[in-house]
Amino acid sequence: MALAMRQRASRAPAPRFRTQLSADSLAQFVDPLPIPEIAKSSELRPSPTDPAIKLPYYRIPMRQFESKIHRDLKPTRQWGYGGSSPGPTFETRSGQGLLVEWANELPTSHFLPIDHSIHGAEADKPEVRTVVHLHGAKTMADSDGYPEDWFVPGKSAICHYPNRQDAAMLWYHDHALGINRLNVFAGLVGAFFVRDEFEDALELPRGKYEIPLVLYDRMFDLESQLNYPVSGDPKKPWTPEVFGDAILVNGKLFPYLEVEPRKYRFRVLNAANGRFFHLSLSNGQAFYQIGTDQGLLPAPVRIERVGLAPGERADLTVDFSAAAGQNVVMNNDVAFTVMQFRVSRAMSRGAGEARALPAILRPVPRIAESSAVKTRTLSLVEVDDPVQRPMTMLLNNTHWSMPVTENPVLDSIEIWELLNTTDDAHPIHLHLVRFQILDRRRFDVANYWMTGGKVRYTGEATPPEPGEAGWKDTVRADPGMVTRIIIRFEGFPGRYVWHCHLLEHEDNEMMRPFEVIAK
Ligand code: C2O
Ligand code: CU
Q1: What's 419's DSSP letter?
Q2: Measuring CA to CA, which residue among 285, 288, 261 is closest to residue 204?
Q3: What is the per-residue burial (b if ≥16 Cβ within 10 Å, else e) of 82-116?
Q4: For the chain, which ranges sit under pLDDT 70?
């Protein structure tokens, strides 16, 4: 487990920074936690698949804006959906489709360092390109935000989200080929909730007692501006991973939230480019995790330290009733303060007591391994230059532009064995589908290379952690391990992508198309 948790000990030369602001030098808990606005639809429009049906239509412009991420900093230039970061939160119902027009109203030049040596970001491409992916959604291919379907300022794309899936926290973010890491770092992220009757019936904390927490780390310079690290080679500014010392929650640094001494539900998203979070509470209290990426777990799980790789979500409840009158801090690892909860002494007048957490949540029927029609072994590989600097990351030794090799048949079940030959954990995300983790098992990486690809296991297979034992769309492939997932390719035929959700890796070839073939 120690390996799984560790962050990269980089062999690369330290990235160069503009003079960096030290987040530690700032006062903590001086700004209230912002809650992103709820997106509003402006009209009804005919469904593209059935014109007799009218669907709510939303228009979300992407804009450059400035906002203060901390009381004592100057306003920071950012890019955001609806002119904020995170963008507006979508509140939707399962089975109720909707249309979103994503409008690129950004400036025509980028304010973060583009690496033109990266495939898809060559100097002849427009600097500012965007395409939006709704992460975790079961969406037709033409609305899924294929990385090459980018559009430039002045243009927009209308996406149809049918929402035929279980209640879950999804999220939307940029996915433009070769500059995705920069667009997301600039602020192009937002939350998207799907609700359903099953979830309603559990009477979980809701309204002001249910709070989205969108986490990401950033670096800032002394002018309070975003400071994206570069390699030191002006022709190839790409760096393999980005870790900032400022951890933002809903776009604020060290915010506080006033809470009542009762149960809350926190919908937590790791929207960082590269940081893995390991969250804990300062009073030693545990979280109860009730859901993961694609919805509710079979039963609540008590967890003292919640691990979240980039792209993953955790649905957590915290009961503050034993902490009345106290301040509780949420920390990340040992060194980082995330935010503070100020627990009032008494409940607000008229507030009802929260219902006890149900012991049973939502059944997650296990997909039988015997139902898989195909097993694919897919390697995760880091390619270094002669002085051992990472140059690129590959899935199965293939580049983005090579022909499609993963072509599951619609509705068939497959097992994917993610064989991680590198020293890093990589969060692997598949578009369109939800899946289950079967197990992880250590193998001999040196032997694998020496024998030209033989897998010799050196440990026992370990089942998913309790907080991962539900429906997932992103899985941590730990270093030196084979991580097995089982997937039913439900939804729609067409071309989608699977990739590492460390955005620096994804942009530099750690992403591949897959094609769902109609039966
Ligand atoms: Cu969250 Cu392909 O992405
Ligand atoms: Cu990766």
Answers
A1: E
A2: 288
A3: bbbbbbbbbebebeebbbbebbbebeeebbbebbe
A4: 1-18, 351-353
- What single DSSP character describes residue 209? G
Distances (CA, A) of 271 to 86, 178, 369, 451, 491: 10, 18, 32, 38, 25
Q: What is the pLDDT of residue 392?
A: 85
Q: Which two tokens stand for residue 353?
A: 């007591």
User: What was the pLDDT predicted at 188?
Assistant: 98
CB under 5 Å of ion ligand 2: residues: 426, 500, 502, 505, 510
Q: What are phi and psi of 197, to 5 degrees?
A: -70, -35
Phi, then psi, of 381 in degrees rounded to 5: -130, 140
Q: List alpha helices for 416-462, DSSP H.
A: 445-450
Query: CA 461: distance to chain centroid?
Result: 26
The 10s digit of each residue's pLDDT in 448-460 is 999 999 999 999 9
What residues flank ligand 1, with Cβ below 6 Å? 133, 135, 173, 175, 311, 429, 431, 497, 499, 501
Dist. CA 211 → ligand 2 center (Å): 29
